[in-house]
Each structure stands twice: as structure tokens, then as C-alpha cells.
Design brief:
Elements: E1 2-5, E2 12-14, H1 15-21, E3 30-32, H2 40-46, H3 51-62, H4 68-72
Antiparallel strand pairs: 1-2, 1-3
Length: about 70
């Protein structure tokens, strides 16, 4: 997933790059180009998970540059 600047300059970053840089070079905020979607079945399965695993599963859609283990370690 790529993140782009809210100022429309065409600046793009990966999720890891957006976190590392904080703000886009043009002063805009980084926002995802698409919003991750979950199906009804996926939501039902997520509801069965313990909180750390639930958080890692959701964050993995927004932060694909990070491994499951990295997401679980925070």
C-alpha cells in the first residue's frame, strides 16, 4: 500500500516511509491511497481473536511493510 500527500504534489511513500518521514516534503500529511476493506466473514473471524492478534491483523492491512512479528511486538 502506498501513502500520498494530502497536498496533491504526487509525493508517495510506502507505509514504512510515511512513518519514518512523518510529514510529506510538501508539508502535507500522508494518507493511504486506498482504505483497506474487510468482508463480513473476515470481521466475524477477527472477533474471535485475542486483542494483540486482532490489532496485528488490522494493522497489517494498513502497514504491509511490517511483519506480523513486528506488529505483535509493540
Amino acid at each position: 500500500m502506498e501513502y500520498r500527500s494530502t497536498r496533491g504534489s504526487g509525493c508517495r511513500q510506502t507505509s514504512a516511509g510515511a512513518i519514518l518521514h512523518g510529514l510529506a516534503p510538501d508539508g502535507g500529511l500522508f494518507v493511504p491511497e486506498t482504505i483497506p476493506q474487510f468482508t463480513a466473514n473476515e470481521l466475524a473471524e477477527l472477533g474471535k481473536l485475542p486483542y494483540p492478534e486482532l490489532a496485528a491483523q488490522i494493522l497489517s492491512r494498513w502497514l504491509p511493510d511490517y511483519s506480523r512479528d513486528e506488529l505483535l511486538s509493540y
